[in-house]
Design brief:
The complex is a heterodimer of chains A (227) and B (131). Chain A is mostly helical and 227 residues long. Chain A has eight helices and no strands. Chain B has a five-stranded mixed β-sheet with strand order 3-9-8-5-6, with no helix packed on it. Chain B has a four-stranded mixed β-sheet with strand order 2-1-4-7, with no helix packed on it. The chains are: A mainly alpha (227), B alpha+beta (131).
């Protein structure tokens, strides 16, 4: 199961063959939803793109890179403890850190942390349970740490190169999650898929997460530093 | 010619990112606010001196009132420690690490309004009201 085989599997019929499609569907769902929101409501907000455009764009991208890993884990349902712990930790950490970072950059450390922790722990648990309680524990810890760290990093960089840091954080998150996709491919060793589903899951979760992030960034409460 | 599935989706993702990027990133730089008068400029008003200290791990006072178009000189007394010595007013483009209580942070606000001042890490903060 080399990386070359993994690349080949991206064109196959298995769950790996749907990874790119999942990213595409997630992006389309989020952007269409945001475009509708913009023409209905957000266009009336002064300096909308100036204040939130960059962070919303990368928040949407973050959702799009988390979704394929989640679907890949759901497809096989069960993993050995070592892999399951790594899955819970990686998904929990990245899905906590990225939303925490981008919400933290617009709403402050408290609200960014709470949002990042909530998303991180939720995805950490739901993916970490593939190996039982160890993965769940790992997912909770990683989501908690990732959410806190993401928001804290954003606020600490407010007077520095925050946007450049946002791009770097996103790229590193994408590389880590791609690594996880490869690890799952290697660990399952071409095993048969246990759970077949269409892209409805991707669309629903992209819609929910984009909606929540947008509401929080634009209308949600913010720390005194951001008022 | 048959296009690989991954290549097709990769192309579509890039396309969506370009369209989305144009849509969302057109706001440009987020730096807002006015220009701070340069040294030797036309503004020769009396300097407004402000001394900031700390209380409850934050700047004290946490609200400063100054007059527009008059130079402001802020000093951080010896109680101000750590990252709070790195003083910034993002919207006015003011940023200085005042190592000692003798160092001053000088600028001239040329626009009325309320601006947030903070340490470089956002741990301590307050309001600068320009009247």
């Amino acid at each position: 199961m080399t990386f070359k085989e993994f690349r080949k599997s991206l064109n196959g019929e298995g769950v790996e063959g749907e990874l790119m499609k999942t990213v595409f569907i997630s992006l389309m769902t989020s952007f269409v939803f945001l475009a509708v929101l913009y023409f209905v409501k957000l266009k009336n907000i002064p300096d909308f793109f100036l204040k939130y455009g960059f962070y919303l764009f990368f928040a949407v991208l973050s959702i799009a890179i988390i979704m394929p890993a989640v679907r890949q884990v759901r497809a096989f349902k069960e993993f050995p403890c070592m892999s399951g712990m790594m899955i819970g930790m990686t998904i929990g950490m990245i899905s906590g850190f990225l939303p925490g970072f981008f919400v933290g950059a617009t709403n402050g450390m408290f609200y960014g942390s709470v949002f990042g922790i909530a998303v991180g722990i939720f995805f950490g648990i739901s993916n970490g349970k593939c190996c039982g309680v160890m993965g769940v524990m790992e997912g909770i810890m990683a989501g908690f740490m990732g959410g806190l760290m993401g928001a804290m990093t954003a606020v600490m960089m407010l007077n520095d190169n925050l946007k450049a840091a946002g791009i770097i954080v996103f790229v590193i998150g994408a590389i880590i999650l791609s690594g996880l996709n490869y690890m799952i491919f290697k660990e399952t060793k071409g095993a048969e898929r246990k759970h077949k589903e269409d892209q409805f899951f991707t669309m629903v979760w992209s819609f929910i997460l984009t909606g929540l992030t947008t509401w929080l960034m634009v209308f949600g409460p913010r720390s005194l530093l951001f008022q | 010619m048959e296009v690989k599935k991954s290549t097709l989706y990769f192309g579509l993702i890039i396309l969506v990112l370009i369209v989305g990027g144009i849509f969302f990133l057109r706001g440009g730089s987020s730096v807002t606010g006015n220009v701070v008068a340069q040294e030797g400029g036309a503004l020769q008003e009396e300097t407004q001196k402000v001394v900031l200290s700390t209380k409850n791990y934050n700047y004290y006072p946490s609200e400063i009132k100054v007059k527009v178009n008059q130079p402001v000189s802020i000093t951080l007394d010896e109680k101000v420690q750590g990252c709070l010595r790195s003083f910034t007013i993002k919207d006015l483009g003011v940023s200085k690490y005042a190592r000692t209580p003798q160092e001053t942070i000088d600028f001239t606000p040329t626009k009325k309004g309320t601006f947030t001042f903070a340490c470089s890490m956002g741990m301590g903060y307050g309001k600068l009201i320009v009247e």
